[in-house]
Amino acid sequence: MVELIGSGFFIVLIIIAAMLFFHFVPLGLWISALAADVRISIVTLIGMRMRRVPPGKIILPLIKANKAGLDVWVNQLEAHYLAGGNVDKVVDALIAAHRAQIPLPFERSAAIDLAGRDVLEAVQMSVNPKVIETPIVSAVAKNGIELKIKARVTVRANIDRLVGGAGEPTIIARVGEGIVTTVGSSEMHTDVLANPDDISKTVLGKGLDAGTAFEILSIDIADVDVGRNIGAELQTDQAEADKRIAQAKAEERRAMAVAKEQEMKAYTQEMEAKVVEAQAEVPHAMAEALREGKLGVMDYYNLNNIQSDTDMRNAISRAGSKTENAAPAAPTAK
Fold first, then answer.
1. Whole-angstrom Cα distance, residue 68 to residue 36?
2. Has residue 89 got a pLDDT over 80?
3. Minimum mean pLDDT among 32-41, 215-224, 233-242: which range?
4. What sign for the dihedral angle of Cα 57, 58, 60, 62?
5. 132 pairs with which residues across the strands?
6. Under 8 Å CB-to-CB from 82, ≥6 apart: which residues?
7. How far apart are the C-alpha atoms of 124 and 145, rounded to whole Å?
8. Do 64 and 95 meet the contact criterion of CB atoms below 8 Å apart?
9. Segment 58-72 mean pLDDT
């Protein structure tokens, strides 16, 4: 019984040891590398395991590069993996560039990949240019007519400027700016409609791909639509604004006139009050003058006669005014 337990424990130890051995020593990859004529030692594969580098992510791309005739070393691939790069995509990009006869060293390809760009897509775009369609760009000619323009920009990746070069949004923004400038410098919108290729020539001649990761091959105007009459709308808005300003000024003048009228009314009422107050003092003054002998009885009668004559004349004048303003009487029937 003890012998059976001992033999079973020994078998378990052998199995565990074999599993650990095959885990740290990837014999399958080593045999595949030898079959592909890629010289790699067992010690190197074990070192990858110790450095926590999956050997399959290094050996398989190395075999692929070796079969494509590329001069790539295992230390380069392992260093790029440890730096956080995509080894398989870099090798695919190197193979595609080699087939297309595009000079692309491993260091530049690795730098492009670590910069966050798709190096394989960049190589493919160098061989097969990409078409970027801009959104609708609204531009206004000098005569005030709006034009809505859509353009297609054909670009090719510039491998030398992929690291640090601007991307597609910059190309779209620059093309839109060029379209607005070109249309804005045209006297009539009909000139643009008659020769839309002038926009392409003018914009293309501005060197819009400077500092970008692309090379612009062509700019084609896909669609041109006539929009609103911006000039007329601006003139209408200006006229409406001028009218509101004039109305505000007129209202200000009316308010000032009303205030002045109220001020005059208040002044008139004040003066009338003073006149009434002065008239109320007249009898007292006359009585005082009579007591002091400064005014005789005949003088007082003369003043009353003059006042009565004045009142009569005023009454006659008021009666005459009412007679003139009265409507003519209707003719009586005979």
1. 11
2. yes
3. 32-41
4. positive
5. 153
6. 51, 53
7. 42
8. yes
9. 83
